[in-house]
Structures are given as C-alpha cells and as structure tokens.
Amino acid sequence: MIKVNNLSKKVSVLEEELTILDSLSFQVLRGESLAIIGPSGSGKSTLLGILAGLDLPSTGSVHIDGKRITSMTEEARASIRARYVGFVFQSFHLLPGLTALENVALPLELRSESDALMTAKEFLHRVGLQDRSTHLPSQLSGGEQQRVAVARAFACQPKILFADEPTGNLDIVTGSRINDLLFELNQEQGTTLVIVTHEQSLAARCERRLHLQCGAKFVSVEEMTTKC
Amino acid sequence: MLILQMFRRSWRGEPLRLVVGSVALAVAVVTSVSILAERVERALISETSTFLAADLVLESNSPITKEWIDSAESMGLKTSRMMSFMSMVYSGDEMHLASIKAVDNGYPLRGVLRHSDTAFVLDGPSIITGGSLRRGEAWVDGRLLPLLNIKLGDSIDFGDGSIKVTRILVEEPDSGGFSSMTGSRVLIHENDVFSAGVLIPGSRVKYRLLLAAEGADATDQLIEYRNLMSAKLSIHQRWISPDKAQAGISDTIDRARRFLMLAGSIGVVLAGVALALASHQFARGEILQVGLYKTWGIGGLDIRRLYIKYAILVGVIGSSFGLVVGAIVQEILIQLISDLLPVNLPPPSGKTWTIGFFTGMLCLVGFMMPSLWHLPALSALTVLRKDVKVKLLGLAYRGIIGVITIGCLLWYYSASLMVALAIFSAFVVITLATFIFGYSLLSLGKSVSENFGSVWRLAFANLWRRRAQSLLQVMGFSGAISLLMVMTIVRTSLIDEWQWQLADDTPNHFFINVAPPELEGVESLMASRSLENVGWYSMIRARIRAINGQDLTSEQRDNHESLRRELNLSWSDTVPEGNKIMSGSWWPEEPTNDDLEADETIPVSIEVDVANELGLNLGDLIIFSVGGLEFEARVANTRSVNWQKMTPNFYFLFPQDALLEFPHTNMTSVHIPSEEKGILNQLLREFPTLQVIELDKVIKRIRSIVSQVTHGLEVMTGLILTCGVLVMVTSVRLSMSERLHESAILRTLGSSRSVILGIQIIEFASIGLISGLLAALGAETSLALIQYFIFNLPLVLHPALWIIGPLFCMVMVAVLGVGYAQSAVSDSPLDLLRRL
Question: Does B298 touch chain A (CB under 8 A)?
C-alpha cells in the first residue's frame, strides 16, 4: 500500500543543514499496522507528514497504491489524500464551534455525500457517543473528543489511517480504550494503520514497528512475531 | 447548501458574528447616513422650491404663450400662472403704489400661504396656513391697512374695479429676496386683473410660469422639459431654478450636504476599521479548519472557491441585515427631527439601497478578503506540527488594500476629491504616526516601567511582546477618536458660524427711500422706542452709460442685468464692515491736495463678482447717469461682500463728498423686536414715502432651516459617535482571548486578582493614552485641511484636543477593556483555561 524508497528530509536551521530523515526505505502492506516509534525530535511526525503527502522529502520517493505521490503537485496529492487517507491527531483537532455530530459529518459533507449526517450518526454510535452528538467539543472530555476524532477519521472509510500520537494527551485507561477502538475499526474496515507513538504498549499492538532514533538514523523495521 | 451549513455552524462562534456585525455596521451607517442625507437634501431642495413656490420657474417680460403651458401639462407637469407689477390702489383719499401679484387657482405649487386677521403678526393662533384666495378677494400686507386707513372687510379700488380685503398676508412662499419690497404686497386673483383693465400694452409686468413635478422621476421630467423648451427661450425670458433662487439658502444646503457626506465617509472608515479587525480574528480562527480540509484532500483551489462563496454569503447576509438596521436607524432619526422638517420627506430612492449593499460587498472585498486570501495556501502540516509558521497576508498589504478601498469609497461617497483627500490624509498621518510614535512610546514605556513595580513591568512587557497587535489597536482607537474629534469640531464650528450669522439682534427691517429732511424725524421716532440702526447709507439711483469711453451696446445690456437696470450707488469713507479689499486700494479718509491733484476722476469701489462679470479692471473708466446728469468714475478697487450679514451692502461705493451734488435718499437696517412692530404703523403714516422691507419673515425662514439642519447634524454626530464606540468595543474584544489566556496562566502561577486587574488597567489605559495623543495629531492635521479647503475658515489650532482627547481616550479604553475583561478576574483560572 505504501512504498518508501531512499527517503531523506533535510531542513535549514540557522543557515546549517539539518538531516531529519536519512535514506529510509520500507513498505507497508495493505491492511497492515505500523508503529513509528522513537524519541522526541527523531522525525516521526515529519515522516508521517511525508507519507500522507502533506509534505515533500528532500530526496527519495513515496508511492501510495502504486502512485508516486512525491512527484505530484499539491493539488494532485490532495486528491490522493481525499481517496486514501484519514487522520487522527494528538490534540484531536475538533472544530470548536461544531457539535460532535457536525465534526464527524464535515469531511463527508465536503465530499458532497448526501447521507453525511446519517453516516456520521452511525460512526458516533460505533464509538459509543450517540448520546453526545449535540455536544460541543468543550463539553466533552479528552477521551470523548478523541473518540469523536476517530469516528470522523473512520467515517470517511480511508484506506490508510495516519494517527499522530493518538493517545498522547490521554490517561492510560482512556488511551487504551482509544487504542482498542482504532484496532477494532482497523480490523473491520481492513484499513492500513500508520501510528506515530511514544507508547511501547501501543507500538506492541502493531504488526510492525519502525524505530527512529535521534540523529534520524533508521534503525530497523521489526517483523511482528505475535498478533495483538 | 454546504456553505449555508458552514455559516450556520460558524455563527455559534464569536469571530463570524463580529465579521457579520461589522459588515452590517458598515452598511447600516452608510445606508442610514446616505438615505438621511438624500432625503434631507431632497427635502431642503424642496424647501428651497417653496421660495419659488415651484420646482422651476419661467420668467418672462411678455405673456407666456399657451404652447409653454400645454407642453408642460402634456409631460405631466403641474403649472400655475403668475403676474407681478406695480399699480396704485386707493381707498377714499388715500392711495398707495402697491406691488400686485396676481395668481391663478393653482398657486402656490410648492409651499403654502400663511394669512391672518391681524396685522403685523408672525406667529400665533390667528395665523392660518394653506388655502387659496378667490376671485374678488385681496390678501394684503399688514402695512397697507395704516397706509390706506382701512380695516379687514373694507374694499379697495384697483383700476376699474374694487376688491374686498379679506386677509392679512403673513407669508407667501416666493416672497424671499427683495422683489416685492418696494410696495405693499396685494395678492389678487388673475381674473380680477383682466376685469380691472389695469394692464395696457407697454405696462411693466413680470410674468411667471410656475412648474412642478411629482414622483420618483420628477427631476428628470423637469430637466427634459427645460431642455425641450430652452430652444424657444427668447432674450426676454429666463429660467429660475431652486438652486439659483436664493444664493444664501443654496449655500446652506451645500454646507449641509458636505457635512452629511463627511459624516457618511467617517462612518465608512470606522466600519472599515471594525471589519478589518474582526476579519483578522476570523481568519486566525479558520487556520485549523483549513489545515483539516487539506488533510482531507480538499485542494487549494477548492478551498479558495469555498471561501469566496463563504465571503459572498457573509456579505449578502451582513449587508441585508445592515440595510434593515440602516433603514430603521434613519427612520428613527427622521422621527426625531420630523417636527423640524419642512415637508414630508420624500422616500429614499433605490440608488441609496444599492449603494448601501455594494458598500457592504466592497468592504468585504477590501477588508475581509485580504485576511482570508492566504488561507488556501496554508500548509496542511499546520495540523501536525506546531512549529509550522502560519502566515496570513501581511499587515502592510492588508493596510494598503484597506486604504485603497476606503479611498475609493470616500471618493465615491463624497464626490469630492478634497473631502476624500482630507480624510485620507488624516488616515495616512495616523498610520505613519502610529508606527513611528506608537512604537517609540511603547519602547519608552517599557524602559521606564523597569523602574516601577512588577505590575507595571508585566503590563508593558505584555504590550511590547504583542507590539504588532498593540499598534493595530492603537491605530483603530486613534483612527476612531481622531475622526470623532474632526466630526465634533467641524460640526461645532459650522453651527457656531451659522448662529453668529443669525444672532438674535440681527437687523430684520430695512428702511429705504428716506429723504434727507426726514432723517431727523425717523431717527427721533426710533429713539423713542429705543431702536438702534446700523447707520445711514446714502443711495443714488444711476445707470451705467459707457465703459472706457465706449457706449454700452445692446448686446452688453442683454448679457448683464446690472447694465439694464438702475443701480444703487452709495458712499463711504471707510471699508464697510464685512467687506474685504480684493484688489487695488481704498481711498484715504481725508484726501490730501496731492491726491486730488493726482487724479480728478472720482474713484469707485466695485463688488468683485460684478467687476468680474462686467470685465472691469482697476483703472477702467465708467460713465454713470443719474437722471440725465452724468459723471465719470475710475475703478479704484474691488471688494468682496458678506451678503449673509443683514446690513446694507452696495455693489458700487464712492468717497463721501464725491456725489453730494446728486439727488439721493437714505437707507438703513434695524432690529425691531416683534412686540415693537407697531412702530411701522406710525412710521408709515408720518413718512408716507418711506418704504419698509420686512426681513423678519425671511430671517425666520432661514432660522427655521438652520434649526432643522442643526438638529439633524446633532443626531448624525451622535450616530457616528456610537459607531466609534462600537469600533472600540470590537477591537477590545478581538484582543481579549489572548488576554484571558495570559490572565489564567498568571493566576494559576499565583498572581492575585488585584495584580491582574492592575495589569489590565495599565495596558488598556496606555493604549488609550497613546491612541488619544495620536488621534489629536491626526485630527489637528485633517481639521487644518478641511477648515482651510472645504469651509474656507481661517486656520485655528485646537489645544483642547490635546488635553481632552488623550484623557477621554485613556479613560474610555480602560473602562471598556477592563469591563470586558472582568471575567479574567472573576472566573476561576480552570474555567478560563477550559473556555480557551
């Protein structure tokens, strides 16, 4: 589903060139789950952005479903995102003025889907928040907000879901529930899951793990030996 | 549909409401001001029409043919015929050369007749307004009764017939000016003229065709008729339109119109500032949304289309709301001053609504779109990484676009490059001053605050850290306050000038045709009633016969009215009060022998406009004829005359002794209080040749118009002041979220409520103080331009601005800011953080 070939990302900081990602190459298969782990500043979020087509590498290429997105224009990458990609963010990124239901429905409405509200209701139900659909984000707890964000991501039925520290702002118990939800939906929809995380427990539930270290050196891609 | 849903959802948040509110405010101000301006202007023009008793008048020396009337009526115009001439009226042995005005049943087309059963009254229950006179009736000036020794109900002889005097004429709409002042007015029906047989071929009669049009296209109809018939205009005929009817009144209208335009322009600028601030806040709130759109695969172009549609929707909703509010506000204003307005105000034209709506849309393009412009270009990475910089369109670019928009609107509204430039210059001065002085003052404040307590240090550190935002706020405040200052000063000086011109003791009666032997008698009679005149002026009736040795040609006579008729000459040793020498020099009070020997020709001083009209230059020689006796005069100087002062003024003035040999009479002007008007009876009986011109009626009319306009302006200034306050509130609200955040953190770290309150007070008061100082600078500059170029007033500095302005601004911003930020002190830090 995702093929990364010799990917590097360098940025200029105070007139010095800093290498964030260096010669990364790996593949993620359809329906597979991959954890990108590593300490802060190791380039996890940068890699996620490039994999999702939100940013471009300095060298190397990324293919999604056989299409080389790193040589596409921003508009073309946007259309790839629309067809393949969903996101869950560490800080939820719910729109504060919209209710839970409206937040879930918004991306569907932007795609002009006629039954956007029905689908949104269904997914809110799936994450157990059917009774909170009219609540604004400020009226929901952190865990509830992230469940709404998960519902929003899966409601679009993406082929690949990128999750950036999805439980980073939550306590262990709540975080664990969110993880359960992510993997459940991943199983149900056959979604390819790419998760950036600090948490070993979450990484352990993924089929494979990509270790990044400070200095952005690629370490290894471990094959999962056990299933979650 | 999606756009509507987005709008409905975003409406829950404050930023969109502020944007829509600002657009609505812009449109409401502009609409109410422009509708009010248009309606009042049309009403004032209509009021001026009443000075003519019509919207347009054709004046002719010969009877007006049926063709003129038929053409007018076929075009849907209302018509009325009028004749005026001098004729003797008799009662027993008494006789009087009366000024007869004969009208048909339609008279007057504009304005109303006011009449009474008591002589010499201007107000009171005895006065009846409206109605028209019937055949066989005469309505006469009160002074005719003592002159003919008659009372109401008596008949007077007129030609072969006799007419019954039924009413005292208090006011006729077209009595303004001096046309009817030589004899007592006798208003009769035109049929009585024909039956009396007083008119014979060669009689000096002025014929008038009064015209009026109704409906929305009234002005067009009149223009069409005038264009159509102008080809048939003979040299003995001329058009009289309201704007030319009364130079003084049209000057008043012109000033009022300029002020209303100024008010409208200021409304635009204030609302523009509010909209720009609100839009910036709105755009910041949209950054997350755009980032999400990008991650969901919505392309930049689609996002741009989305926001353009969104902005149009905001514009349509805001503008529509503004139109409704504007209509309500102007209706309230009209109701407030309805008692003062002379006629029912005409409804606003469709043009004002269109202007209001498109102003809203243009404001949106100029003030909102620049803030939204860079949103589609935002990187989607903003949702992943906080270190990705979000760059909206720079302040400088937004400022330039906003200034261009304001410039276009100002120019469009004021239709005057000067007014637009004056306000514009204030804007430019304030912007530059804000960035230079504001920056320096903030920097100074920060350095000085190091020596004070922690509250001062924190407050100034906050201001300095957010200096861009602080400067933006200072610009908003200083702009609003500066414009309010301009408004207040311009309004005050305008009204002061008017009030001065029409002081309570303004002379309201002219005595003319007083023979030299009668002077003493008239003086003593006036002294017995403690009436004081402005001094006596001699008057000689003369014609111009030749200029520079050349006899006047018939062409010259046709082109210049002053060459056709007898002129009033007078003399004076000093430049009369209110006159100003424009070229040449005044003659010495006591000429030396050298002066006399140098030039034996009599010097003459000419009013500058007449000199220009006749093409007269210094040194030109004019031959005057006084009843067949001739003398030559040399143009010694030209002078401007203040016609608005109710004192005798003359086109031609000579040295005191030069014309003593010619027959002359005397004139003066005097203030006669209404309770002393009975003196006129006695005066006219004792001195039958003396003529009285009663200006009190005219003054009353002018005073009433000034009063209406002044009240309108007071309400209008109040409206703009309210707008200024609203702009301030908007900008205070816009910076509030960050302030609340800081306050919450400080309180979490252990700061007391009083510390937070102290910081807030110092921050807001400092912004207010800096704004007030800059506002005074901007206002002083634009006032100098406006007063000098627009109102032709001398340059005057306004020290009060520099004291009251900053103090007022400091207190107001501090009260508004601290009042709004009250929750930062009263709510718990946790509540604040959750809300943010």
Answer: yes
Q: In a 10 Å sphere around its CB, with 0-12 CB exposed, 13-18 middle and 19+ buried, how is residue B721 labelled?
A: middle
* Whether residue B60 sits in one domain with residue B45: no
Average pLDDT, chain A: 84
Segment among A202-206, B376-380, B810-814 with least mean pLDDT: B376-380
Question: CA angle, corner B109, sides to B201 and B337, nearest 5?
Answer: 145
How do residues B522-564 score in pLDDT, each as one tens digit? 888 888 888 877 788 888 888 888 888 888 877 777 777 777 7
Per residue in B512-525, pLDDT (tens digit) is 888 888 888 888 88
Are B46 and B87 members of one domain? no
Residues of chain B contacting A75 with CB distance shorter than 8 Å: 299-301
In this prediction, residue B718 carries a pLDDT of 62
**Taking CB atoms and an 8 Å cutoff, what residues of chain A touch B295?**
52, 54, 81, 85, 87
Q: Between B12, B295, B834, which is nearest A81 by CB?
A: B295
Full set of structural domains in chain A with CATH = 2-222 (3.40.50.300)
Q: Which residues of B touch A107 (CB under 8 A)?
A: 292, 296
Closest CA of chain B from A7, distance in Å:
18
Query: Does B297 sit within 8 Å of A82, measured CB to CB?
Result: yes
What does each C-alpha distance from B317 to A228, B21, B357, B402 come to in angstroms?
54, 10, 10, 21
Q: What pLDDT shows up at residue B255?
A: 60
Answer whether A104's CB lies under 8 Å from A148's CB. yes
pLDDT band at B338 (very low <50, low <70, confident <90, very high): low
Using CA atoms, how far residue A13 sits from A19, A20, A47, B380, B521, in Å, is 10, 11, 18, 21, 103
Mean of pLDDT values over A207-221: 66
B88 and B235 fall within a common domain: yes
- Tell me how far apart the alpha carbons of residues B167 and B454 are, in angstroms, rounded to a whole number: 84
pLDDT exceeds cutoff 70 at B710: no
Residues 350 through 369 of chain B touching chain A, CB cutoff 8 Å: none
Which residues, 6+ apart, have CB-to-CB distance to B151 below 8 Å?
Answer: B145
Q: What are the respective helix, strand and coil percentages of chain B, to the nearest 5?
A: 55, 15, 25
DSSP β-ladder status, B128-129 and B155-158: unpaired
Q: Say how far apart CA A40 and CA A30 lie, in whole Å.
A: 28
Q: In this predicted model, what pLDDT tens digit does every residue of B102-112 receive, in sequence order?
A: 999 888 888 78
At B774, the pLDDT band (50, 70, 90 cuts) reads confident
CA neighbor of B145 nearest in space, from B175, B120, B114? B120
The 8-class DSSP code of residue B365 comes to I
Chain A CB within 8 Å of residue B296 CB = yes
Handedness of CA B529, B532, B535, B541 (dihedral sign): negative
Residues B167 and B234 in one domain: yes
Q: Tell whether B392 and B467 lie within a shared domain.
A: no
Residue B517 resides in a domain: no
Name every chain B residue with its beta carbon within 8 A of the beta carbon of A142.
none
b/e burial code for range B689-713 (CB count within 10 A of at least 16 → b): ebbbbbbbbbbebbbebbebbbbbb
**Does B491 lie in the same domain as B541?**
no
Alpha carbons B564 and B406: distance in angstroms, whole number: 51
pLDDT tens-place string over residues A147-180: 899 889 888 888 999 998 888 777 777 788 888 8
The range of the structural domain enclosing residue B403 comes to: 1-54+249-415
Q: Which of B57, B191, B90, B174 is nearest to B133 (CA)?
A: B191
What residues have CB less than 8 Å from B675, skipping those under 6 apart? none
Conformational region of residue B441, where left means phi above 0, alpha means psi within -120 to 50, and beta covers everything else: alpha
One domain, residues B492 and B562: no
The residues with which B345 forms a beta bridge, in sequence order, are none
Identify the residue among A72, A85, A106, A113 best suited for mutation to test binding to B, counting B beta carbons within 10 A and taking the highest. Answer: A106
pLDDT for the residue B229 = 87
